[in-house]
């Protein structure tokens, strides 16, 4: 096997192998995709493309609290796949300074001075009372221009809301987040990313490692049991914070490395569902979070049906499933939610389950590995090496097109659910 | 003052007024008579004329003049017998001695409406311009930010749904051990068919010759059973041969019921003997080529077979009324017809209306949205074809299909119903030969499928018609290709096997072309219905109207 060069960050390899040796195990630190097969006399010529795709994903789930710096360091090892143009962090099941505020909704946002005044006025008017407020200690002088306010604030519910059941409370929180977004959207004075108990979001433009330093994320104030992080590869001239992954809605979050070619029909279907929270869509990836929310929460389907909705099986494959009848109906009814294009989706659900799924052709890299108590779901193996160097590498899982890799809360085990078998 | 019209010809038409002028070459012609025998309109006839000849014999110029009686071919300057430009005379001429030439300065329409009878014809709208759908380009090309797919290597799902799709919220499902199961047999789940997104649109067995129809039917069957491409074909008004109604092939056909109900006696009688359900039932309320006008099968085409299938006497004009006479409101027309048709097949067959393109399409659509049994809406735009219609209807009535479909789709999107009620676009699909590209563009604008008719006649059977009014005499029963005639002398010119072969070629190629469009756009898992960000057009108004990208 020998390299024949690098094009746009993607290395191309050419190798000559006997046909029996076609099952190539990835030798490099990045996943390998067989690109093209061509019979060449008695040998098979295999062109292998080592994809270094857009954006890098780094998710960690553990039974104990850990620092987001672990995610960031993992992103750093995968640096050839992102250009350091942004970092998005979503923390769930919080420790650190938020350990004692698990029942209070936390508003994560970025504001200008004016935005903060508007926000305070609005929250007071609604009757939300600040229980605890946290802002990162900003380290200046490392080339990142600080915005006025980075805020994560735990609120106590207004008295009228306190007595409501959880679903009703959730609606109030979502509506409040949407209202804040509307308030500060035009002049970009408020970016409200999430307003939910035990969940915190932090996003900024810049190199992930530098941002870790900039936000002093190593100081132990922020910790969580599930953290998903995306290192951004920019494809736009201007980076708009609402277009930055991960995306959050009512306890569900997803992040993606890819391009969603079915974006417009999906967006139009979601907005037609008349859920006021199905809006935004500054990124074609935001729909992945909303589909998850719709399938799992609104329709009440078990989580694995997320995979069946976004990458439906062929009719023949469906016939092989025990739930074939239901699946055939779902495939039709949710036809516009089928994704297309290259995508690895990593996300979490309200109970703290973390998962990874691939597009129907497995066009993006992804690997899951770890040990009981801590697992990483990464774009590349080197990311896992950084977080879990002690794990048994032979047990690493490279989810293929039919797989949904699920790590339940507590991270005691990893389940590979195969769509063909259901 | 007394007119001189009785004593000279200055008020008669000259051939310069005619749409096609015959170029006959005396020097090549052997006077075999084939061209005059074959001309469907008798526009040419053998004639004799006196010819002056000057010959010089010997060394010097010493011309001798003789006058000889010659035989030849002449074009008749009678508009009842105008040359249609079909060029059948050229096909049969062994010596390349005759051909029609289009006359761009003709004044055909000024003289054609004789005796108070407006000009009737078959064919299409005589507008040779580039249609809007042909101006649309596919511009969202996947390349580096996402890899383009490989049309030859990756799996593609080029299928659409015909039938009312239930919203997910209404599906009768329950969760058992982390699996979804049907919660009970009591909920009605409307029938839905999975078909190839290009269908053969309604062309009746009366309008088409038996050989043409048989060729189409054979081609469709082969595509479904051998190629595995589930192409559907609609019958048009007038039923089907009873033999086919009772055959297992019925499942590939969409039976049309129109305002004349022709053929439905036979269909109803065949019902108890049917082995298969039809693919769907299409209720025709309108036709793009002649909106607001009923069907018309002229007497010359009502011969034995057609009289038998339709249950009518021979040699009578079969006119279907412009509307379904028994209904007096849209609620009744749509709801009752859909319901009774559904009931006839035990609610196992999708039933949908077809209307002509119109500004009121969204009103019809919204009526259907509220009817849970309505399986789709087919809209036939102004570029649709017909076997017989008034020229004025063909040329001047109707609505372009592109904005009609787009408006309807966006209307459904606004209601969140775009996946529930499929829209089928018809009229002018493949007008200039780009069938797959037109279909893909309509799909990206929001259609679930497209219908094509004229393209099929042209590509599978060599129909001679075009937008310069070439041929277009389908109404007369004298189709020179044997496509739209019931005269065995004419339709034996058409080999049904060849038609079937071409049908298979057309759809197998369209299948590849669709993949060639979808692959570079990164779409393979589902049909890209409503993927309007994939389209662009170089005309600003069109872009704004259709809400797509303006790109120059
Ligand atoms: S072109 Fe057709 S209509 Fe004209 S003379 Fe020839 S055969 Fe007749
Ligand atoms: S060839 Fe036949 S079907 Fe085609 S335009 Fe002429 S008459 Fe009509």
3D structure, described in words:
Chain A has helices spanning 68-77, 113-126, 159-162, 166-185, 208-214, 263-272, 286-298, 305-310, 315-319, 324-333, 381-387; strands spanning 2-7, 10-17, 32-40, 43-50, 56-66, 87-94, 105-111, 129-134, 149-156, 190-197, 199-204, 224-231, 247-249, 252-258, 343-348, 354-358, 367-371, 374-378, 403-407, 415-418. In chain A, a hairpin with a 2-residue loop joins β3 (32-40) and β4 (43-50). With 422 residues, chain A is α+β, with helices and mostly antiparallel strands. Chain B has 552 residues and is an alpha/beta fold. Helix content of chain B is 28%, strand content 19%. Chain B is built from 17 helices and 23 strands. Chain B has helices spanning 34-38, 88-92, 108-111, 132-135, 210-227, 242-245, 264-270, 304-310, 330-344, 361-369, 391-396, 401-415, 435-445, 454-461, 488-491, 496-518, 540-546; strands spanning 20-24, 44-56, 63-75, 98-102, 120-123, 137-138, 160-163, 173-176, 179-182, 192-195, 198-200, 233-234, 253-257, 280-284, 296-297, 318-319, 351-356, 377-380, 386-390, 423-426, 449-452, 535-537, 549-550. The longest helix of chain B has 23 residues, at 496-518. The mean pLDDT of chain B is 92. At the A-B interface, α6 and α10 of A face β9 and α12 of B. Bound molecules: iron/sulfur cluster (SF4) (2 copies).
């Amino acid at each position: 096997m020998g390299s024949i060069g690098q094009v746009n960050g993607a290395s191309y390899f050419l190798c000559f192998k006997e046909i029996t040796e076609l099952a190539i195990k990835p030798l490099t630190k990045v996943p390998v995709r067989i690109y093209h097969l061509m019979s060449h006399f008695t040998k098979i010529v295999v062109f292998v493309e080592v994809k270094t795709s857009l954006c890098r994903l780094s998710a960690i789930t553990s039974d104990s609290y850990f620092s987001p710096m672990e995610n960031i360091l993992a992103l750093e090892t995968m640096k050839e796949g992102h250009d350091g143009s942004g970092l998005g962090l979503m923390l769930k099941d919080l420790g650190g300074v938020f350990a004692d505020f698990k029942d209070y909704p936390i508003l994560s946002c970025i504001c200008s001075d004016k935005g903060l005044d508007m926000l305070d006025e609005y929250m007071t008017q609604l009757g939300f009372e600040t229980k605890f407020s946290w802002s990162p200690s900003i380290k200046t002088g490392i080339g990142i221009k600080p915005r006025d306010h980075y805020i994560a604030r735990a609120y106590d519910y207004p008295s009228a809301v306190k007595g409501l059941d959880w679903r009703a409370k959730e609606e109030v929180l979502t509506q409040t987040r949407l209202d804040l977004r509307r308030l500060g959207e035009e002049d970009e004075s408020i970016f409200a990313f999430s307003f939910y108990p035990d969940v915190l979001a932090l996003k900024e433009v810049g190199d992930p490692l530098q941002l870790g330093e900039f936000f002093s994320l190593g100081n132990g104030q922020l910790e969580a049991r599930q953290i998903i992080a995306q290192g951004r590869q920019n494809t736009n001239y201007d980076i708009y914070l609402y277009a930055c992954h991960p995306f959050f809605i009512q306890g569900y979050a997803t992040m993606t490395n890819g391009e969603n070619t079915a974006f417009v029909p999906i967006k139009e279907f979601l907005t037609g569902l008349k859920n006021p929270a199905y809006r935004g869509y500054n990124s074609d990836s935001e729909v992945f979070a909303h589909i998850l929310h719709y399938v799992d929460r609104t329709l009440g389907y078990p989580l694995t049906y997320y995979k069946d909705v976004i990458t439906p099986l062929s009719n023949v494959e469906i016939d092989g499933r025990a739930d074939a009848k239901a699946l055939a109906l779902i495939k039709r009814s949710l036809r516009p939610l089928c994704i297309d294009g290259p995508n690895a989706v990593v996300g979490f659900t309200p109970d703290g389950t973390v998962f990874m799924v691939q597009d129907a052709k497995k066009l993006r890299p992804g690997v899951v590995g770890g040990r009981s108590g801590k697992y990483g779901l990464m774009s590349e193996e080197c990311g896992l090496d950084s977080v879990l160097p002690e794990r048994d590498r032979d047990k690493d899982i490279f989810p293929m097109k039919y797989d949904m890799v699920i790590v339940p809360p507590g991270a005691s085990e990893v389940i590979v659910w195969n769509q063909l078998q259901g | 003052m007394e007119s001189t019209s009785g004593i000279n010809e200055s008020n008669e038409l000259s051939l310069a007024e005619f749409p096609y002028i015959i170029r006959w070459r005396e020097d090549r012609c052997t006077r075999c008579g084939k061209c005059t025998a074959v001309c469907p309109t008798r526009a040419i006839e053998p004639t004799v004329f006196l010819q002056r000849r000057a010959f010089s014999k010997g060394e010097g110029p010493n011309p001798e003049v003789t006058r000889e009686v010659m035989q030849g071919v002449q074009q008749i300057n009678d508009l009842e017998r105008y040359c249609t430009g079909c060029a059948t005379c050229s096909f049969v001429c062994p010596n390349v001695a005759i051909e029609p030439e289009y006359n761009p300065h003709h004044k055909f329409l000024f003289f054609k409406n004789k005796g108070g009878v407006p000009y009737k014809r078959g064919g299409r709208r005589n507008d040779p311009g580039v249609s809007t759908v042909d101006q649309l380009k596919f511009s969202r090309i996947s390349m580096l930010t996402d890899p383009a797919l490989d049309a030859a290597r990756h799996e593609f799902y080029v299928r659409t749904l015909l039938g009312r799709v239930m919203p997910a919220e209404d599906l009768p499902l329950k969760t058992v051990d982390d699996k979804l199961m049907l919660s009970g047999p009591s909920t009605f789940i409307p029938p839905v068919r999975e078909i190839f997104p290009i269908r053969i649109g309604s062309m009746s067995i009366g309008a088409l010759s038996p050989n043409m129809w048989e060729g189409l039917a054979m081609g469709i069957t082969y595509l479904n059973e051998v190629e595995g491409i589930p192409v559907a074909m609609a019958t048009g008004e007038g039923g089907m041969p009873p033999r086919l109604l009772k055959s297992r092939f019925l499942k590939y056909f969409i039976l049309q019921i129109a305002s004349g109900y022709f053929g439905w006696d036979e269909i109803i009688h065949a019902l108890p003997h049917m082995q298969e359900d039809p693919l769907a039932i299409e209720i025709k309320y309108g036709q793009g080529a002649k909106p607001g006008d009923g069907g018309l099968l002229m007497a010359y085409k009502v011969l034995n077979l057609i009289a038998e299938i339709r249950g009518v006497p021979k040699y009578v004009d079969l006119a279907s009324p412009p509307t379904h006479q028994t209904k007096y409101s849209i609620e009744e027309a749509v709801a009752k017809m859909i319901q009774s048709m559904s009931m006839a097949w035990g609610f196992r067959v999708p039933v949908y209306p077809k209307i002509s393109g119109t500004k009121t399409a969204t009103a019809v659509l919204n009526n259907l949205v509220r009817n849970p049994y309505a399986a789709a809406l087919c809209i036939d735009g102004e570029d649709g074809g017909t076997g017989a219609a008034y020229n004025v209807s063909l040329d001047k009535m109707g609505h372009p299909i592109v904005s009609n479909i787009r408006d309807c789709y966006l209307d459904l999107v606004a209601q969140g119903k775009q996946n529930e009620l499929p829209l089928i676009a018809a009229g002018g699909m493949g007008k200039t030969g780009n069938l797959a590209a037109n279909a893909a563009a309509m799909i990206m604008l929001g259609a679930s499928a497209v219908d094509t008719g004229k393209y099929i006649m042209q590509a599978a059977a060599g129909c001679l018609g075009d937008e310069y009014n070439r041929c277009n005499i389908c109404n007369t029963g004298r189709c020179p290709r044997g496509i739209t005639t019931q005269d065995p002398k004419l339709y034996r010119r058409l080999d049904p096997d060849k038609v079937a072969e071409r049908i298979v070629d057309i759809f197998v190629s369209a299948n590849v072309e669709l993949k060639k469009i979808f692959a570079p756009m990164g779409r393979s898992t589902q049909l890209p219905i409503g993927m309007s960000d994939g389209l662009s057009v170089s005309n600003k108004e069109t872009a704004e109207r259709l809400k797509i990208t303006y790109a120059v």
